[in-house]
Write a structure and sequence with these properties.
The structure is a single chain. This protein is α/β, with parallel strands linked by helices. Helices cover 41% and strands 18% of the residues. The protein is built from 6 helices and 6 strands, in the order αβαβββαβαβαα. Strands 4-3-2-1-5-6 form a 6-stranded mixed β-sheet, with helices on both faces. Helix 4 links the parallel strand 5 and strand 6. It is elongated and about 80 Å long.
Length: 170
Amino acid sequence: MFSLAQYQHAIREERLDGWLFCNFHHRDRITDDLLGLDESSLSSRRWFYWVPSSGNPVKIVHTIESGSLDALPGEREIYTGFDDLCERLRAFSGKKIAMLSDPRLAVLSTVDAATADLVKSFGIETTSAASLVQRIASVLSPEGIASHEKAAAALYAIIHKAWDFVRRAF
């Protein structure tokens, strides 16, 4: 479940201006998962979702699919063509942002090269979102921690019983 406060806290911890998500035809399942988007929804046009370190997110969507990010908080900006999309992205010029692109982690590099180049062409500094993904998706909830502690207790009990069995056998 997407939590704006959690994402913005993580972005601030990484000293970034924001995190720019993008997707097209649901090619990026990591983005869909992180934002809690329905993979069966229509996605025939490229969209961007800007999560700033503070303030309101921005949904940049094509006019044909203007409701594609309605499940997410933020202001909607609609573009009608490539030049219009470029104007919307140019607004992030001079910012340091995270994107799902990392030369060391192919599994995390879901942003296509053309989109990454387009974003950079507007004077936007991009960095890997790997640490943000770890902060968001790899942190156990209190329930997850409790489940791990219960499993660990069971494993230690099994180990003690196994060693007792070995001791009695000799």
